[in-house]
């Protein structure tokens, strides 16, 4: 039976493995450092930190944050003028801020890492570069929140430390606000991964409580679940922490299934790419197993971290995407896959996942369709490698119920399709179903299928029938007839291009196994 103790053991075991990859030293504290009966500890000017409820809720252990001087938090400031060598700030470096020649027009971005990481990580550099390269961001300043000394094991201590780091970061932002003479914090965007997402929430809360200021935006990238799931909003990132809070869930599974991300909808907008739990290309199929201990460690590490890390890869790509990166509001991921949410309307809002989501959200607000209390969960599908962005098509397949089809009988196999646009550019090939399916005359099925974007909607479709004989299934035996399927039509509906086409086989001929068949709209008018 799963319980808090087994969850903690699993977490600590995985975290110890992950610790080996980190290049920084673990900070060790005196054994009696936390041996006191206090329920509150204060660090001026950052505030007091309690160990009473709700900080005890769903937490097997509980710590105070370590002192600010032990944390050694640094803020590395980057602009287009200094991409490689940052200006290093601390929370109260007002004189440095005054002399730093920071453009007050902004925008301002803060990026925070999570557990066992630091501000030096390559994903942070890639994200910062993408933000600086964005058109219109000539005056942008990026602050990397580097709290690596506080992100070390035990996990519970790192969880406590982000409360203080969040408050310290709030003081830094307030100093920027004062020194630069800013009217508000609408131009501030805090991006945090895992524990860093909740750190951003603490920063947003502290700004409101201490300085009566509200961050413009917080983006939570797979916010950490352990010690944060099923807690009150004060303990975790919440949509009250900024004017706009968007969340990308990429590893929302129980801890005992190697899930690190929170599953709850905690933002104004919550994105669940590929359902939000596991990501394409991250499956551990065992094919990479090696005998050496180090290789085994690397494989375990890849398995437990790939899904969790995908959130920041998706967000970085969304800054300058190769396609619309559209996500659709739906009742569930299963309903989305079944093609129940394919129209962008008042029942199913369509919002691009990631960086550009706020622009569409504000338009919906301006039109009176949303307010600040409205929550939206959206779903999408992505690829298994970069670029991850895909376009979505609702595919409706109708198996012919003609005399020829009934005489031929049912078939077991898979249908593969390739979309072809007016420039004869071809998409990647995709199966309508991942597993073999039993098709009988008159059947109809609908599925949502993602494709690499060619830049234009399709005009025709190349269809293949993938047939596999199973010795133990007589239905798959084709001794006298060619393995084939009679398809009456395919209807292809695009979310991104808002187009519909229906294509049919020429002369109602069957699709023969392993023989590509071109289907076009003009073939649908044929009558025998």
TrEMBL record:
One of its GO terms (cellular component) is extracellular space. Residues 41-361 form the Lipase domain. It is found in: Secreted. Ca(2+) binds at residues 236, 238, 241. Its main location: secreted. The active site is at residues 194, 222, 308. It comes from the Eukaryota. Pfam families: Lipase. GO terms for biological process: lipid catabolic process. InterPro entries: AB_hydrolase_fold (IPR029058), Lipase (IPR013818), Lipase_LIPH (IPR016272), Lipase_N (IPR033906), Lipase_panc (IPR002331), TAG_lipase (IPR000734). GO terms for molecular function: metal ion binding; triacylglycerol lipase activity. Keywords: Calcium, Disulfide bond, Metal-binding, Secreted. PANTHER family: LD47264P, LIPASE. Belongs to the AB hydrolase superfamily. Lipase family. This is Lipase domain-containing protein. It comes from Parnassius mnemosyne (clouded apollo). The lineage of its organism: Eukaryota, Metazoa, Ecdysozoa, Arthropoda, Hexapoda.
């Amino acid at each position: 039976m799963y319980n808090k103790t087994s969850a903690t053991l699993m977490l600590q075991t995985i975290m110890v493995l992950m610790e080996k990859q980190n290049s920084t030293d673990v900070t060790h504290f005196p054994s009696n450092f936390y041996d006191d009966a206090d329920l509150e500890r204060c660090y001026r000017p950052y505030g007091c930190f309690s160990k009473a409820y709700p900080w005890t809720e769903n937490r097997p252990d509980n710590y105070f944050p370590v002192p600010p001087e032990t944390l050694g938090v640094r803020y590395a400031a980057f602009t287009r003028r200094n991409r490689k060598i940052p200006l290093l700030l601390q929370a109260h470096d007002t004189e440095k801020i005054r002399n730093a020649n920071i453009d007050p027009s902004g925008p301002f971005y803060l990026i925070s890492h999570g557990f066992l990481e630091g501000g030096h990580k390559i994903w942070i550099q890639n994200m910062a570069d993408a933000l600086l390269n964005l058109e219109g961001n000539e005056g942008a300043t990026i602050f990397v929140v580097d709290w690596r000394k506080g992100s070390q094991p035990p996990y519970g201590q790192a969880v406590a430390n982000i409360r203080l780091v969040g408050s310290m970061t709030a003081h830094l932002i307030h100093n920027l606000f004062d020194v630069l003479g800013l009217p508000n914090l609408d131009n501030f965007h805090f991006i945090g991964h895992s524990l860093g997402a909740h750190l951003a929430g603490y920063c947003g809360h502290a700004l409101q409580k201490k300085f009566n200021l509200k961050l413009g935006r917080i983006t939570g990238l797979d916010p950490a679940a352990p010690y944060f799931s099923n807690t009150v909003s004060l303990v975790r990132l919440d949509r009250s922490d900024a004017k706009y809070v968007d969340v990308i869930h990429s590893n929302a599974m129980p801890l005992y299934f190697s899930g690190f991300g929170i599953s709850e909808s905690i933002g104004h907008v919550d994105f669940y790419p590929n359902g939000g739990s596991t990501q394409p290309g991250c499956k551990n199929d065992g094919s990479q197993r090696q005998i050496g201990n180090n290789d085994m460690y690397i494989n375990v590490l890849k398995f437990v971290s790939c899904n969790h890390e995908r959130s920041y890869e998706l967000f970085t790509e969304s800054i300058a995407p190769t396609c619309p990166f559209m996500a659709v509001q739906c009742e569930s991921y299963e309903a989305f896959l079944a093609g129940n949410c394919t129209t962008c309307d008042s029942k199913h809002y369509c919002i691009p996942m990631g960086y550009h989501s706020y622009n569409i959200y504000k338009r919906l607000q301006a039109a009176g369709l949303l307010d600040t209390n409205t929550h939206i969960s959206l779903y999408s599908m992505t690829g298994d490698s970069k670029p991850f962005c895909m376009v979505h098509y609702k595919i409706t397949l109708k198996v012919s119920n003609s005399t020829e089809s009934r005489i031929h009988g049912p078939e077991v196999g898979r249908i593969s399709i390739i979309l072809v646009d007016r420039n004869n550019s071809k998409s990647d090939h995709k199966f309508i179903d991942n597993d073999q399916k039993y098709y009988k005359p008159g059947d109809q099925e609908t599925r949502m299928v993602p494709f690499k974007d060619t830049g234009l909607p399709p005009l025709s479709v190349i269809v293949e029938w993938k047939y596999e004989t199973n010795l133990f299934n007589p239905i798959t035996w084709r001794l006298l007839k060619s393995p084939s399927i009679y398809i009456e039509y395919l209807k292809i509906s695009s979310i991104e291009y808002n187009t519909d086409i229906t294509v049919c086989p020429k002369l109602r001929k069957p699709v023969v196994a392993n023989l590509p068949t071109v289907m076009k709209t003009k073939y649908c008018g044929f009558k025998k």
